[in-house]
Design a protein that fits this description.
With about 150 residues, the protein is an alpha+beta fold. It has a single domain (about 5-145), classed as Aminopeptidase. The chain is about 30% helix and about 40% strand. It has helices at about 15-25, 30-40, 80-95, 110-120; strands spanning about 5, 40-45, 50-60, 65-70, 100-105, 120-135, 135-145. Strands 1-2-3-4-5-7-6 form a seven-stranded mixed beta sheet. Strand 4, helix 3 (about 80-95) and strand 5 (about 100-105) form a beta-alpha-beta unit. The N and C termini lie far apart (about 30 Å).
């Protein structure tokens, strides 16, 4: 099955939230995505006519960008979709003159950390108790890389 990258639409939001709910213990709400679209953030999906398999949201301003969320539905993970949509977001940010990208990732999310490292991200710090977790709070690893990606 073929999936194509395109900008997120309001009509995608129910499917995007379903993906969030399937993938995350503490998912983003529909309201957060509405606010991101309204703010003009880079909001993209990988989709076909019937489903959205991945989405990403990035803010870009004043020479830097920040990955806010990157999600692939659990049934479609480990197929390169996260890399595809994140690479697209990084390319878009570079075109918008961002020269540095930042992100936070759960310290326990080894698959995401591996992906980010493979894309040239390096750890630059941590945020203690940043993410809600079933057993309280979890630390975030802060990572960054310079842009463009060449």
């Amino acid at each position: 099955m073929q999936f194509f990258a395109r900008t997120m639409r309001h009509s995608d939001l129910d499917l995007v939230v379903q993906n969030e709910n399937a993938a995350y213990e503490n998912p983003w709400s529909k309201r957060i995505f509405i606010d991101c679209l309204r703010a003009g953030y880079q909001c993209w999906v990988l989709a076909n006519k019937h489903q959205v398999v991945a989405h990403g949201v990035m803010s870009v301003a004043i020479g830097e960008c920040h990955l806010l969320t990157l999600c692939v539905h659990p049934e479609h993970q480990r197929k390169g979709y996260a890399r595809k949509i994140f690479t697209l977001l990084l390319e878009r940010a570079a075109k918008l003159e961002a020269t540095e990208c930042f992100l936070e990732v759960r310290a326990s999310n080894s698959a995401a950390i591996e992906l980010y490292r493979s894309l040239g991200f390096v750890p630059i710090g941590e945020r203690k108790n940043y993410y809600p977790a079933s057993s309280g709070r979890e630390d975030a690893l802060i990572m960054s890389r310079s842009l463009p990606m060449n």
